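Researcher: Before we compare anything, I want clean individual predictions. No alignment, no superposition, just each chain on its own. First chain goes here; please echo the sequence and then give the structure tokens.
Model: Echoing the first chain and its structure:
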Amino acid sequence: MRVAVPGGTGLIGRALVAALRSRGDQVVVLSRNPTRAPEWLSGVEVFGWRPEAEHPPTEAIDGVDAVVNLAGAPIFPGRWTESRIRAIRDSRVLGNRNLVAAIGDTESPPSLIVAGSAIGYYGSRGEEELKEEAGPGSDFLASVCRDLETEVEAASRMGVRVVRLRTGIVMAPSGGALGQLIPVFRAGLGGRLGAGRQWFSWVHISDLVGIILRVLDDDSIVGPVNATAPNAIRNVAFSKALGQTLRRPSIMWVPAGVLRLAFGEMASILLSSQRVLPSRLAEAAHEFTFGEIGPALKDCVTRSLDSSTSTP
């Protein structure tokens, strides 16, 4: 299989590219930094692309079997300034619009687009169990996810199978949300955020890559897919589990007001309650390696330590 991966140099992209290459697939990476991409990736074709500003190069997507679009300005870390909010939105919404337009101009279009969306689609929903049929929320991230999904769904009118991957908070050895939290907890400053009862829907990066590979190979999967572990956890329980994994106390408390003062609109990610269920994957009898948060955190922390001790 020949797969194009816009955003292939990001946290998820690099893990996906490695998995695709290990099983013998050909990979084309699209990056806004094409000259630096070979520093992170090897054995792949690389093309430059600014998702919010232009169509991707025709030669990068013409003839590929699938496109997995992971391109988007990073959500973490740092405060969301006005310019960053615009970049988060435009890189995803305009990026998918430009991608679909380019696919319409190709002689041999891909048969599948996997669009990286997020559980932010649902907004904060308290105790509600959120399956793929649930409607969108009304906050900023919900509007971004809703609009990018609308843009990419236009490709289905061209006969392209479209999967909208609503990804949970990714647990990875480095980077992402966990990369921001581990130093805080190692310093003994970890604990619940806000009330602590909000639901936290997560997915281990190895399972996320496995979900994408399953989507690539299984033609029966179409439409929205919740890419989350089957067992969501409350924030206070997550904080306790991370503290136990790091052998540090997790008794601190960060009030919601302090989070909003420190992070602005980004605090909504930390305070939102989203009890997301991967029902489409359950229907497909998809198996997870990390269904519980304890083993997932242990694996990430162990791999993080192994990486740091092996670095000269």
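Researcher: Okay. Second chain, same rules.
Model: Second chain and its structure:
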Amino acid sequence: MSADDNLTAVITAIKQSKKYKDTSEDTIRDLAQTALKQHKKPKAAIKAVRKRLHSIMAPYLGDPDYQTMAVSLEEAFQRGDSDEIKQLCLDILNDHLSNRERVPIMEAFYEQIWEITGKPQRVMDIACALNPLAFLWMGLPISTQFFAYDIHEPRISFINHYFELQGLAPLAKVQDVALEPITEQADVALFLKEMPRFARNYPGQERPLLESIQAEWLVLSYPTVSTHGGRNLTNRYREFMQKLVEGHDWPITELLFEGELVCCVHKGKI
């Protein structure tokens, strides 16, 4: 088989797999190209790509049944039942571990962030997972431009469906920010609990990513306790954050919540 044939074989195998078929093809192609440089045979490359995707996609964090939840949301919006809408959004957020952990502090979480950054008119949610479903707890008007980025296709489709039901513009995109720089501008860019995984999967790209984001404020958060074993991670991530901004005049304002360290980084006017 030619190199092109091998690449096509790997991409096709991953796109036909049950677990990763809905992943951005750009991401799969990039991982396949890297894997084929390390493995001569497609079978070994496919295994390597699946291993990388397991780390990047983190399927163990959970996902709802998007089709079922989309129908439930449609019906709740048709009834105009605001309590039911909020409960459904909570149910969806509870299906993803990182969002679930934030639910008890969600309202205070955004209120305290906006006290530092000011209420944004344009928000980015990078590697968003299901976090845009927290919109009703953010205290923002429906005139807000809410950009969201993720590499899971059904997730982005579902988020845009929710945005339209909520009266927001459907500005969620399937985009791998490690491969394609974000071109939109925002007042605040959220990158919640994702930098540790990003740094692990794309070593050396952490600072370039933050430098490329066109936002006045970067809001990064980190878990304060490890998933396994309960080890306190607060100081570790404080030090990690300081290294990330070293050499830049980017002041950091810290917020500490139960389970989550938030760093509000002021890049300045764009």
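Researcher: What stands out in the second chain?
Model: The two ends are 49 Å apart (CA to CA). Additionally, The domain at 3-57 is CATH 1.10.8.10 (Helicase, Ruva Protein; domain 3).
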